[in-house]
Design a protein that fits this description.
Layout: H1 2-19, H2 29-32, E1 38-44, H3 51-66, E2 71-76, H4 87-93, E3 98-101, H5 126-135, H6 138-149, E4 154-159, E5 168-170, E6 184-186, H7 191-197, E7 201-203, H8 210-215, E8 221-222, H9 227-233, H10 235-238, E9 241-244, E10 254-259, H11 260-264, H12 268-302, E11 307-310, H13 313-333, H14 335-358, H15 362-370
Parallel strand pairs: 1-2, 1-3, 6-7, 6-8, 9-11
Antiparallel strand pairs: 3-10, 4-10, 5-8, 5-9
Length: 379
């Protein structure tokens, strides 16, 4: 008796939807309930202990929550399936459904790709870089690079503004750019060219080997990431000196790549959720980074785990000259690089120029309230 009434009710609902032109049939709970969740397997470029892996998990959680569990992303740590530098190929081929990384990892495929993940110091922070992507023409250049230049079977999402990196960790303070000549320094990705221009003997050791290399003297310094990641890796004990402020990685953002065939096969609402979840996760990422990085920085200073010094202005200017040389060389060699960097320059000139004129120097307020400077900014 119950079964016959249930069957009659299902026929009634189906007929009602059909009479309305079939609109909304897939949205009925009885239909959705008959379908299992779509599960995508991702791999990140980060160690499971790193806060960057935590950011990848945060994005996955938002997709799951916003989709009501209809789209689930399982995130593996670095090396679980392929090496970090092999993630693009793995997603392209469908070995993985997606990955969490940064465009600088694919520099060998096209030298313009790192410009979307950080780029040279044009005065932009990471939020301004993402604004260029959304409103300054960056998205079209990004999509064109993957689709036409690389013929990559991927859909890319850039998100997650990060603070600029410190200059790095050293055994001795860096007082001038002359100290870089011959310095054995670990740095990876697009920033290696900048440091080579400064005369550095660049090493690209894997993350897990940095501390041991510094302990045995085969490294004089290393650039890694942020107070939380650096502390977790053990750099304060291995080096002892952190030079704050740098122009080598001033505007970093993350990249989420989906296999295009898998992504395009999703219903429109799930594709929209995947995109909008990146915006939501990116906002929270910047808030979490402010909390976690400032906490670890304050604790390291209070516990005297390391000395934190500001990078001299002369060193910052030397970095800018090195960037100019690197950009000029790459622009000559790669028309796509030249096109992207010129677009970024036009955006930075307008957007950063407005920001500098509109915003009061925050040091004035900070020193007024916390340093007893009564509004006098410390230069």
């Amino acid at each position: 008796m119950t079964d016959s009434r249930g069957a009659a009710r299902r026929r009634f609902l189906l007929n009602a939807v059909t009479a309305a032109g079939g609109v909304g049939l897939a949205g009925f709970p009885m239909v959705a309930a008959a379908q299992g969740p779509v599960v995508f397997r991702f791999q990140g470029a980060w160690s499971a202990r790193d806060i960057f892996h935590e950011y990848a998990l945060d994005y996955a959680r938002r997709v799951i929550d916003m989709s009501g569990g209809r789209l689930r992303i399982e995130v593996l740590a670095a090396g679980a399936v392929v090496k970090p530098q092999e993630l693009l190929d793995a997603v392209h081929k469908g070995v993985l459904d997606g990955c969490h990384a940064t465009p600088g990892l694919w520099e060998s495929r096209n030298t313009a790709l790192p410009l979307f993940g950080s780029g040279p110091a044009l005065g932009m922070d990471a939020n301004q870089l993402l604004a260029w992507m959304r409103y300054g023409g960056g998205a079209a250049l990004y999509q064109d690079l993957y689709e036409r230049a690389l013929n990559a079977n991927v859909v890319g999402l850039l998100y997650g503004p990060m603070p600029g990196q410190p200059l790095g960790w050293f055994k001795k303070p860096i007082a001038s750019s002359a100290q870089f000549r011959g310095l054995k320094f670990r740095v990876t990705g697009p920033w290696a060219d900048l440091y080579r221009e400064l005369g550095v003997a660049v090493s690209d050791l894997p993350d897990g080997e940095i501390v041991a290399a510094m302990a045995r003297g085969s490294l004089d310094g290393a650039a890694f990431g942020n107070p939380t990641s650096d502390r977790q890796l053990g750099l304060p004990g291995a080096a002892g000196v952190c030079m704050m402020q740098s122009f080598h990685a001033p505007a970093q953002v993350f990249e989420i790549l989906y296999n295009r065939k898998k992504f395009d096969a999703l219903p429109p609402d799930l594709r929209a959720i995947a995109r909008h979840a990146a915006d939501a996760a990116g906002a929270d990422l910047s808030w979490k980074a402010t909390h976690r990085y400032s906490t670890d920085y304050a604790e390291m200073r209070e516990r005297r785990e390391a000395r934190f010094l500001k990078t001299p202005v002369e060193v910052l200017r030397a970095q800018l000259r090195a960037w100019q040389a690197v950009v000029s060389a790459k622009s000559r060699d790669n028309p796509i690089f030249e096109k992207v960097i010129e677009s970024q320059r036009r955006w930075a000139r307008r957007a950063v120029g407005w920001s500098l004129d509109a915003a009061a120097d925050p040091r004035i307020a900070y020193h007024y309230w916390f340093s007893g400077k009564a509004g006098a900014a410390k230069q």
